C-alpha cells in the first residue's frame, strides 16, 4: 500500500476584486482549507486507488471563481496489468503524443481538472503500442472544464530506437462542447546527431447544419554536437473550436524569474497561435554552461501567404522573448546563475516591454549548511500608458543540510497603480521542515504575497494578493 | 433507533472492508509496477529491470528549479553509485507542453541516467508524490526503502542506504 496526504491551510487577508477601495481597505478575510488523502493498494497485478478530498475555499474563491466546498471520494480507480495488456477503470489522465488531440491533467492550485472517469485499455507488445479510452470529464463549479464524453485511440510503432510513427483519433460528443473529431499523425526520426519530430492534427467540429475545420501542427528539431545542443520548435495552432482536452506544446517558456511570473506573464492560447522558438545550450568552459533562447509567436495574420508565421502587428497579439543565462559551479560546490532578458507582448488590455536581470549565488558553508542569495530586477515599459516602473526582489535562503530550510524574501515596486491595488512592498518568510525520515514535510509561510496570474499548461487563474499564514503538510503514508 | 441501526451497519461494513483489505495486504501486497516511455520512444518496465541492485528514482521536470539544482549538485554522487550498480532513473514530470526541453537539458549537462517520461504524473502519484522534487529508493525487488520530499538534504544518509542495499543485493 502506498499513499500520501496533503494539507493546505491559509489564514489571513486577500484583496477582494469587487471592492472599490484602495489597498489595504480593499481586503477581505481569507480562510482556506484543503486536505487530499490519496491511497493506492496493490494486490498482485491489481491496483486500487482513490483520493478523499476535503475542500473549503475562501469566500473570495467562491465569489470570484465560483468554486464550491467539497467533501468526498472525488477520484477512484482500479487497474489490472496482465502483460501485454493493462486496463484501468475509473479516473485517469492521458496524453496522446504531443497532446495536439488529447492531453488530460489536473492542477488543483488553478482549479483545473480535465481527467476522465471511464475505461482505458493499453497494449504494449514489442515495437507496437496501442491505447484506447472512453470516459467523461467532470464539470465542477468554478473549474474550467465542462462535462464531456471523450473517446480516443492512439497507436504507435517504434521500429528502431529513435524512430517512431504514430496515429491518434479523438471524438468529443456534444454534451459540453460541440461535437468534434480529431485525427492526427506523428513521427520521430533520428539521423546521427539530428532528431526530427512532429505531429499534425485536424479538427472537424459540428456546428448544427455546418462544420468548421481546424488544424494544429507541431515540429521539432534537436541537433547535438558534443555538449552543445540546438532546439528548434515550430507551432501552427488554429483549432477553430479548441477545447481544454487538447494540450499542445507551448513553444515558449512558461516559468521564468519570479518577478516575471507576477507581472502579466504570457498566456498561451492555442485556438489561434503561430510561432517558433530557438534555443542553444552548452558547456562553454569546464564549469560554465550557457543558454540563449528566442521565441516569437502571434495570432495568425489575415491574408498571409505561404507557411504561417508570426507577425509583429499589434492587432495579432505578438509576443517575443529573448533571454540568456549562464551557470558556473566551482569545485567547492558554490554556484552562480545569471539570467538577463527582454520581452514584449501586446494584448487587448496591455502592451508591455520588459527587461530583467536575475542572479542567484549559493553554496555550502561546511557544518553550517548551505546558503543562497538571490536578486531580480524587472523594468516594465507600459507602451500604451507611456509609463515605466521597476519591480525588485531579494531572497536569502538557508538549509541546515539535514531537515530545516528557511527563505526570506522581499519584493517592492515603484508602480503607483499597483500600490493602490495591492501595495508596494511584499516581505515574507518561509520555513520548511522535513521529519519522519523524510516522509513528511511541513512548510509555514508568513508575510505578504503578490497576486497575479498563475499558469499551468496554458491555463491560468488570477490569484489575489495575500497576507497572513499559509501552512502545508505533505506526508507519505 | 433507526439511526443507531444504520450507524452499526455502516460501522461493521467499514470494519469488514478494512479487515479484508488488511489481510489481503499482508498476504498479497507486492511492490508497484509500471511502464513508461523513454526519450527515444522505447518502453521501460520496472519489473523487467529489477534484481540487479537498488534503484534510485528522481522525479523532476525542466521547469522545476530545485530539481535541476539537485541533479547538478549531486551529479557526481549519483554517477558514482550508478557505476557501483545502482540503477538511477530520472523520471520527468514534463508534459506535452515542455517535453521538447528534456533531451537538450540532459545532453548538454552530460547526465547519463535513464530518463523516462511520466507526463500524466501517474507513477509519481503511485508512490505518494504530490510535488517535485521527489526521490525514492527501491530495493532489488522494487519495495520502497526511503522517500525524500523536496530537495534531498541528508545526502550522507542516502549514500549509507545505497551502500547497505548494494551489500544486501550482492549477498542475494
Would you mind describing this structure in some detail?
The complex is a heterodimer of chains A (477) and B (172). Chain A is 4% helix and 62% strand. Chain A is mostly beta strands. Chain A is built from three helices and 28 strands. With 172 residues, chain B is α/β, with parallel strands linked by helices. Chain B folds into two domains: 1-30; 31-171, Glutaredoxin (3-Layer(aba) Sandwich). Chain B is built from six helices and seven strands. In chain B, strands 2-1-5-4-3-6-7 form a seven-stranded mixed sheet, covered by helices on one side. In chain B, a hairpin with a 4-residue loop joins strand 1 (35-38) and strand 2. Residues 20-29 of chain B have low confidence and may be disordered. At the A-B interface, strand 1, strand 2, strand 14, strand 15 and strand 16 of A face helix 1, helix 4, helix 5 and strand 7 of B.
Give a concise summary.
By secondary structure, chain A is mainly beta. Chain A is built from three helices and 28 strands. Chain A starts with a strand and ends with a strand.
Looking at the structure, what is the overall shape of chain B? Answer: globular
Contiguous helical run count of chain A:
3
How far the N terminus sits from the C terminus of chain A, by CA atoms, comes to 8 Å
Helix-strand topology string of chain B: HEEEHHEHEHEEH
Give a quick account of the main beta sheet of chain B: strands, pairing sense, barrel closure: 7 strands, mixed
Fraction of residues in β-strands of chain A? over 45%
Structural class assignment of chain B: alpha/beta
Give start-end ranges of low-pLDDT stretches of chain B. 20-29
**Per CATH, which architecture of the largest domain in chain B?**
3-Layer(aba) Sandwich
Amino acid at each position: 500500500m502506498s499513499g500520501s496526504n496533503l494539507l493546505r491551510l491559509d489564514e489571513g487577508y486577500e484583496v477582494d476584486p469587487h471592492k472599490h477601495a484602495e489597498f489595504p481597505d480593499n481586503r477581505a478575510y481569507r480562510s482556506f482549507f484543503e486536505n487530499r488523502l490519496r491511497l493506492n493498494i496493490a494486490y498482485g497485478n491489481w491496483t486500487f486507488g482513490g483520493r478523499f478530498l476535503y475542500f473549503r475555499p475562501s469566500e473570495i474563491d467562491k465569489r470570484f471563481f465560483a468554486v464550491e466546498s467539497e467533501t468526498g471520494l472525488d477520484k477512484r480507480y482500479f487497474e489490472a496489468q496482465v502483460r501485454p495488456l493493462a486496463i484501468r477503470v475509473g479516473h485517469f489522465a492521458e496524453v496522446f503524443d504531443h497532446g495536439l488531440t488529447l492531453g488530460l491533467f489536473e492542477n488543483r492550485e488553478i482549479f483545473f481538472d480535465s481527467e476522465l472517469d471511464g475505461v482505458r485499455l493499453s497494449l504494449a507488445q514489442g515495437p507496437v503500442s496501442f491505447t484506447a479510452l472512453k470516459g467523461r470529464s467532470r464539470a465542477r463549479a468554478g473549474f474550467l472544464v465542462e462535462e464531456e464524453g471523450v473517446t480516443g485511440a492512439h497507436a504507435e510503432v517504434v521500429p528502431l530506437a529513435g524512430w517512431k510513427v504514430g496515429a491518434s483519433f479523438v471524438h468529443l460528443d456534444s454534451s459540453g462542447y460541440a461535437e468534434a473529431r480529431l485525427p492526427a499523425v506523428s513521427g520521430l526520426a533520428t539521423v546521427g546527431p539530428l532528431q526530427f519530430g512532429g505531429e499534425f492534427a485536424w479538427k472537424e467540429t459540428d456546428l448544427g447544419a455546418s462544420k468548421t475545420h481546424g488544424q494544429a501542427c507541431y515540429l521539432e528539431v534537436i541537433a547535438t554536437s558534443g555538449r552543445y545542443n540546438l532546439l528548434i520548435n515550430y507551432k501552427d495552432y488554429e483549432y477553430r473550436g479548441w477545447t481544454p482536452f487538447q494540450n499542445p506544446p507551448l513553444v515558449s517558456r512558461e516559468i521564468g524569474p519570479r518577478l516575471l511570473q507576477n507581472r502579466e506573464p504570457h498566456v498561451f492560447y492555442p485556438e489561434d497561435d503561430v510561432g517558433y522558438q530557438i534555443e542553444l545550450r552548452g558547456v562553454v568552459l569546464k564549469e560554465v554552461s550557457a543558454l540563449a533562447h528566442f521565441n516569437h509567436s502571434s495570432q495568425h495574420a489575415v491574408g498571409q501567404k505561404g507557411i504561417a508565421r508570426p507577425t509583429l502587428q499589434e492587432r495579432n497579439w505578438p509576443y517575443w522573448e529573448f533571454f540568456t543565462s549562464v551557470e558556473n559551479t566551482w569545485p567547492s560546490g558554490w554556484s552562480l546563475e545569471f539570467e538577463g532578458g527582454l520581452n514584449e507582448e501586446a494584448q487587448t488590455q496591455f502592451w508591455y516591454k520588459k527587461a530583467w536581470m536575475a542572479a542567484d549565488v549559493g553554496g555550502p558553508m561546511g557544518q553550517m549548511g548551505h546558503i543562497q542569495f538571490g536578486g531580480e530586477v524587472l523594468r516594465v515599459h507600459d507602451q500604451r500608458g507611456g509609463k515605466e516602473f521597476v519591480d525588485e526582489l531579494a531572497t536569502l535562503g538557508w538549509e541546515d543540510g539535514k531537515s530545516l530550510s528557511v527563505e526570506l524574501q522581499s519584493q517592492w515596486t515603484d508602480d503607483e497603480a499597483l500600490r493602490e491595488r495591492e501595495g508596494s512592498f511584499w516581505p515574507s518568510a518561509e520555513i520548511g521542515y522535513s521529519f519522519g525520515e523524510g516522509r513528511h514535510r511541513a512548510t509555514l509561510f508568513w508575510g505578504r504575497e503578490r497576486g497575479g496570474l498563475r499558469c499551468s499548461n496554458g491555463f491560468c487563474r488570477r490569484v489575489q494578493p495575500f497576507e497572513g499564514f499559509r501552512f502545508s503538510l505533505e506526508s507519505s503514508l | 433507533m433507526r439511526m443507531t441501526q444504520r450507524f452499526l451497519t455502516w460501522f461493521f461494513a467499514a470494519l469488514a472492508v478494512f479487515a479484508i483489505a488488511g489481510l489481503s495486504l499482508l498476504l498479497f501486497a507486492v511492490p508497484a509496477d509500471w511502464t513508461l516511455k523513454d526519450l527515444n520512444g522505447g518502453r521501460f518496465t520496472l519489473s523487467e529491470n529489477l534484481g540487479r541492485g537498488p534503484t534510485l528514482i528522481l522525479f523532476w521536470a525542466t521547469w522545476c528549479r530545485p530539481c535541476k539544482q539537485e541533479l547538478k549538485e549531486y551529479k557526481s554522487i549519483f554517477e558514482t553509485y550508478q557505476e557501483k550498480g545502482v540503477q538511477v532513473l530520472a523520471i520527468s514530470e514534463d508534459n506535452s507542453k515542455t517535453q521538447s526541453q528534456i533531451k537538450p537539458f540532459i545532453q548538454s549537462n552530460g547526465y547519463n541516467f535513464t530518463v523516462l517520461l511520466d507526463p500524466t504524473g501517474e507513477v509519481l502519484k503511485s508512490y505518494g508524490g504530490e510535488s517535485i522534487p521527489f526521490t525514492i529508493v527501491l530495493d532489488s525487488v522494487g519495495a520502497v526503502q526511503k522517500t525524500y520530499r523536496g530537495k534531498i538534504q541528508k545526502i550522507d544518509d542516502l549514500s549509507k542506504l545505497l551502500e547497505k542495499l548494494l551489500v544486501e543485493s550482492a549477498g542475494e
